[in-house]
Amino acid sequence: MNSLTEPAEPEPDTAGRETDAVGHEPDAVARPPLVRELLLVVGLFLVYKSGRQLANGHTGEAFDNAHRVWDLERAVHLPGEAAVQHALLHSDTFVHLANTYYATVHFPATVAFLVWLHLRRPRHYIWTRRVLAALTAAALALHLTFPLAPPRMLDAAHLVDTGQVYGPSVYGATPQTDSMANQFAAMPSLHFGWALMVAVGLIAATRSRWRWLWLLHPLLTLLVVIGTANHYWLDAIVATALLGIALAVIRLPAPAPAPGHSVGRHPLPAQRAAAPRTVTAESMGAATPAPWAPAYPRGGSLSASEVLARIPVSVTRGSASAVDAPPAAGPAGTVLAATGAHR
User: Fold this and answer.
1) Quick check: 315 and 5 in contact, CB under 8 A?
2) Is residue 248 predicted with pLDDT exceeding 80?
3) Least confident of 92-96, 133-137, 303-307
4) For residues 206 and 213, what is the distance between their CA atoms, to the nearest angstrom?
5) pLDDT tens for each residue of 143-196
6) What are the tens digits of pLDDT across the range 59-89?
7) What is the mean pLDDT of the chain?
8) Which residues partner with 277 through β-bridges?
9) From CA 30, how far away is CA 81, in angstroms rounded?
10) Using CB atoms within 10 A of its CB, is residue 332 exposed (0-12), middle (13-18) or buried (19+)?
11) In what order do the strands lie in the sheet with 340-342?
12) Whole-number Å distance between alpha carbons of 277 and 293
């Protein structure tokens, strides 16, 4: 068949690219605008802080609930909070460090974690922000419906208020008149809940074999909130349960579709170049004789256009050459070839 061939444009090489479980590049999600996210996070935090203040003034109910929680822990044989605090009180330095950790690490660590996710893992950032918002909203609902005095205020616990005795403290000396914080919002412990989500988020967003060490952050936070007598064991247990529910309901967003990617975390093979497109004489506008027409008009030689129409030409990057052109013989013994004319 008389043809004119052109090589198709080669496909982009995707060899070595890595895809996730659904066949997309990791975190292929548009990064949310930073200013909008800052306003959103700050707004949610202010709503939470304002909501906590609504639980103030329920002193009697808060202490009644504290006795119930204390009795329940003893009934189910949870370890006493005093065991952790007694170990802490052996060193004034440790007590001061624990109070400092409680006062200064909780919020800045969570903010730094969110900023890093926003810059490096936008997909995980969106997921984490939703989970933290759900956890905080559930905690606020519990603070309003179940005011709870912390164990440092409970006489039956015989625990020391380490913040007031050793410092530093983030709470006022009189809980009933503390306008900066609601001290009757012990359950659940957001110190522990947020720390646990920071660890879960970093483990999910990174691939280092050392990433499981992030669990030391919530573990240390748990020992601090119990040792300083700011929370009960049940406060941490309830926070863990609420976080588990939030993680079960709110899933990590799927990456943006990326055409040409394979499924699974495997490097993609290089794409083969497409088959050359074939262009016939008809598509070039050249006259093509009908199948029943003679190879040449009787009584004469072929015209120049007829000869050219019968020569297959390979076009590569703008050049043309005759390829395996069969000789065409005229009636007078003339033999025409792509490279010249011979008699």
Assistant:
1) yes
2) yes
3) 303-307
4) 12
5) 889 999 999 999 989 999 999 999 888 887 776 566 567 788 899 999 999 999
6) 889 999 999 999 999 999 999 899 999 999 9
7) 76
8) 6
9) 46
10) exposed
11) 328-329, 335-337, 340-342
12) 28
Q: List the domain boundaries for the chain.
A: 3-11+276-342, 34-249
- 121 pLDDT above the threshold of 80: yes
Q: What whole-number distance in Å separates Cα of residue 33 and Cα of residue 277?
A: 45
Phi-psi region of 333 (alpha: psi -120 to 50; beta: other; left: phi over 0): left
- Cα distance between residue 110 and residue 282, in whole Å: 69
**Which amino acid does the sequence have at 257?**
P
User: Alpha helix locations (H) across the chain?
Assistant: 34-53, 59-75, 81-88, 92-104, 106-120, 122-145, 162-165, 190-205, 216-227, 233-249, 304-309
Classified as helix, coil or strand, 250 is coil
CA atoms within 13 A on the CB side of 278: 6
114-to-109, 119, 192, 208 alpha-carbon distances in Å: 9, 9, 16, 19
**What pLDDT score does 25 carry?**
44
Residue 61 near residue 153 (C-beta atoms within 8 A): no
What the block records as the tokens of 259 is 């055409």
**What pLDDT score was predicted for residue 20?**
45
44 vs 327: CA distance, rounded Å: 84
**Confidence check: pLDDT of 266 > 70:** no
- At how many degrees (to 10) do helices 216-227 and 233-249 cross? 150
User: How many CA atoms lie within 13 Å of 295's alpha carbon, on the beta-carbon side?
Assistant: 7
What CA–CA distance (Å, rounded) separates 331 from 325? 19
Q: Are 191 and 236 in contact (CB under 8 A)?
A: no
Phi, psi angles (nearest 5°) of residue 163: -65, -45
Residues 341/334, Cβ–Cβ less than 8 Å: yes
